[in-house]
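Exam revision sheet. Question 4 asks you to relate a sequence to its structure. Input first:
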Amino acid sequence: MITRKITVTNSVGLHARPATYFIQEANKYKSTISVKKDQRKVNAKSLLGVLSLGIIQGMEIELEAEGTDETEALDGLSNLIESGFNE
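Answer key, structure tokens:
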């Protein structure tokens, strides 16, 4: 299992369209992937779970992955977040 902290920089955080892109990216991987904010942890492949965290611009989240492609999963999700979801 590996973890990575990252700050969400896009203007709307992980809401609506960016959350959908995030879920689509997470679903490309076989690993179990979670998103943590404060003391809450949700499945990164669940749109409702991710939206329920209320992640906005400037918040730091922790990504956690466990599985055969865990490194690739966190690299892909981190790159997507760092790109500002290509907005």
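Marking note for examiners. The longest helix spans residues 70-82.
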